[in-house]
Design a protein that fits this description.
Layout lengths: L10 E7 L3 H11 L5 E5 L14 E2 L9 H25 L10 E5 L2 H16 L8 E4 H7 L9 E5 L3 E2 L2 H14 L3 E4 L3 E7 L2 E6 L2 E10 L5 H4 L10 E10 L13 E3 L5 E3 L14 H14 L8 E11 L6 E4 L6 E5 L7 H14 L18
Parallel strand pairs: 1-2, 1-11, 2-8, 11-17
Antiparallel strand pairs: 3-7, 4-6, 5-6, 9-10, 10-11, 12-14, 12-15, 13-14, 16-17
Helix pairs in contact: 1-5, 1-8, 2-5, 2-8
Length: about 375
């Protein structure tokens, strides 16, 4: 879009509120439909789930209580290579995507049995096929020789993978701005005023107008949604993460609790805590994370820890995303999920196309409507 064709400063065709992974992927996809997009971000005071996540592109087990969530997760996994190639080609940033499969390691036989039953039930919901394998310790050791002797086994998902989320964020911003997108540190959006065919965004740093607005503000959607007639019953759930120093490559596949980056650092996590908006860390939870990691990989007991952090997941009551256009104010959309990395390719593809053009996506979005929480 040439400068002469751009909307006046302070206005845009589409406004995306939220500059995290969800917002940026949707903005990038809408741009590809030829629309002018501005991303309004709260700035460094935001909770920043996109910078505190585990970096997994994870399929196995997603959608055990909603088949359509499993389908959009698998669709996104299939689209991920295309997104990664586009970002690397146009930005020169290697986001380190690896999709060679992933393992969910189980410490006990009962944990492994429960996992197997869950995945088998999911497979029955998907006549098109739902690939997974159950591995005993010997089979697991053939894939990862450094696995600990106290492990019961693991489930294997061939569609799983991981990525560097910080490089991903950098690449998304770079690509979005190179295509003419505007990224505005607007502070908090305090009010959205629907008008005839337009929306006014009243933020700390000014008032902005747009023809369409997409709420992708994570936990902030709970407050923003009702301004455009959409309920967003999201709540925070904290996860704590431990990072160990760089060591020789020994984790051949990402797991649900421990993964190794391309640079060699080891990331350990997967705690789940209802602690409100507290992004801190606690010794007892970090100790639990460390114990599980050492049980999985005993060599970690001699590896130094270098940092830790806490970050907040964006959770709905059933754990599944919300994709919804306002019935009261058409042109206003709400997108929220706790799998911003996994669903990135779906958000920049079919979800963005649905918002930009009204095209019917390849998944049933009715399953993700917020009305399900009122049934």
């Amino acid at each position: 879009m040439t400068e002469s064709m751009r909307s006046p400063r302070g206005s845009s065709e589409v406004a995306v509120i939220g500059g995290g992974l969800v917002g940026l992927c949707i903005a990038l996809g809408i741009q590809r439909q030829g629309l002018e997009v501005t991303v309004y971000d709260e700035g460094d005071i935001a909770l920043r789930a996109s910078r505190g996540n585990f970096g997994l592109v994870w399929v196995q087990g997603k959608g055990d209580n909603l088949p359509e969530y499993a389908r959009i997760t698998r669709l996104s996994a299939k689209l991920w290579a295309g997104l990664a190639d586009d970002l690397t080609q146009h930005t020169g940033i290697d986001i380190q995507l690896q999709q060679q499969g992933g393992l969910f390691v189980c410490l006990t036989e009962s944990e492994l049995q429960h996992r197997q039953q869950m995945l088998a039930a999911m497979a029955q919901e998907h006549p098109e096929g739902y690939p997974f394998e159950v591995l005993d310790l010997q089979q697991l050791r053939e894939m990862m020789p450094d696995i600990g002797p106290e492990i019961a086994g693991a489930t294997w998902g061939p569609e799983d993978g991981h990525v560097n989320p910080l490089y991903l964020m950098h690449a998304l911003v770079n690509r979005f701005e190179s295509l003419g997108g505007q990224f505005v540190n607007a502070g908090k959006v305090n009010n959205i005023v629907p008008q005839s065919g337009q929306f006014l965004l009243q933020a700390t740093q000014g008032t902005f107008s747009c023809n369409k607005v997409v709420l992708a503000a994570g936990l902030g959607n709970k407050e923003l949604g009702p301004m455009v007639g959409i309920e967003a019953p999201v709540s925070p759930n904290r996860g704590q993460v431990l990072i160990a120093e760089r060591v020789r490559p020994f984790i051949n596949y990402p797991t649900g609790h421990v993964r190794q980056t391309v640079e060699g650092t080891v990331q350990c996590g997967d705690s789940k805590e209802d602690v409100g908006l507290d992004t801190g860390t606690t010794t007892n939870i970090l100790a639990q994370i460390a114990r599980r990691a050492i049980t999985m990989f005993p060599l970690l007991k001699d590896v130094n820890l270098v940092r830790s952090w806490g970050a907040l997941r964006i959770m709905t009551p059933d754990g599944n995303p919300i994709y919804q256009q306002s019935e009261q104010y058409p042109g206003a959309y709400l997108v929220t999920c706790h799998s911003g990395v996994t669903l990135a390719a779906a958000h920049s593809g079919p979800i963005a196309d649905w918002i930009a053009t009204g095209a019917n996506p390849t998944v049933d979005l009715e399953a993700f409507h917020g009305r399900r929480f009122k049934l």
